[in-house]
């Protein structure tokens, strides 16, 4: 009977994951684990709009390659990763990575997400916009852009069993970048992000999975979670 008394606590701890459309786990989002799902459709960042002059809680983001980790509360999401070193109310966003479609509910992590080198030493915003069947949703994180590659994979970087991903295109998400079109990567493989590689009719989107069989390496990138095309 003692174990049953723990059930309400366990269920309460799972509530943010069960209720949120999506969570922005790394870099840590402005809202943390207390996501206001009713305001996730509010552009540009959901319930909280970042202020580069007053927000002091930041995470280093390495311009030559870092991680973005998410939790999808719907069975399919299409993701746009964008960033700005200006106040986001001005709409000056730059796309950081090819648009990725995740299939499978749960944790999802992209590796080798890059930013312009000229941003080193600047404070900025990394934003995620996702479409999962109920409109476009938004969350953001405040970061310090630093040089180099992040060699320390965060514990939040993992994929749930069965999660797959592939590069795709989405006109609605592309519009959210405005005039700052993909100065880093592109789905065609030019730019800073690694291009999708094709092996045995599979295409990967530079994602990493932890759990089950552990980490799988493919070429120079740590990759798992592939979608059959």
From TrEMBL:
Residues 181-205 are annotated as: Disordered. It is found in: Cell membrane. Residues 19-162 form the Copper acquisition factor BIM1-like domain. Keywords: Cell membrane, Glycoprotein, GPI-anchor, Lipoprotein, Membrane, Signal. Residues 183-199 have a biased composition (Low complexity). This is Copper acquisition factor BIM1-like domain-containing protein. Its main location: membrane. It comes from Neurospora crassa (strain ATCC 24698 / 74-OR23-1A / CBS 708.71 / DSM 1257 / FGSC 987). It is a lipid-anchor; GPI-anchor. GO terms for cellular component: plasma membrane; side of membrane. It comes from the Eukaryota. Residues 1-20 form the signal peptide.
């Amino acid at each position: 009977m003692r174990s049953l008394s723990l059930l309400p606590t366990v269920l309460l701890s799972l509530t943010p994951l069960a209720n949120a459309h999506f969570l922005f786990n790394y870099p840590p989002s402005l809202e943390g684990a207390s996501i206001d799902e009713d305001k996730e459709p509010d552009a540009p960042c959901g319930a909280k709009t970042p202020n580069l002059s007053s927000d002091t809680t930041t995470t280093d983001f390495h311009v030559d390659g870092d991680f973005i980790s998410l939790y999808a509360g719907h069975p399919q999401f299409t993701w746009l990763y964008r960033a700005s070193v200006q106040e986001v109310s001005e709409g000056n966003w730059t796309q950081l990575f090819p648009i990725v479609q995740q299939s499978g509910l749960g944790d999802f992590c992209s590796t080798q997400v890059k930013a312009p080198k000229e941003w080193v030493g600047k404070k900025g915003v990394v934003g995620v916009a996702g479409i999962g069947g109920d409109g476009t949703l938004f969350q953001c994180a405040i970061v310090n852009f630093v040089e180099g590659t992040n060699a320390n994979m965060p514990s939040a970087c993992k994929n749930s069993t069965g999660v797959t991903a592939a590069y795709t295109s989405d006109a609605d998400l592309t519009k959210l970048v405005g005039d700052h079109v993909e100065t880093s990567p592109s789905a065609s493989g030019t730019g800073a992000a690694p291009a999708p590689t094709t092996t045995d009719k599979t295409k990967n989107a530079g994602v990493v999975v932890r759990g089950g069989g552990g980490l799988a390496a493919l070429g120079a990138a740590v990759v798992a979670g592939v979608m059959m095309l």
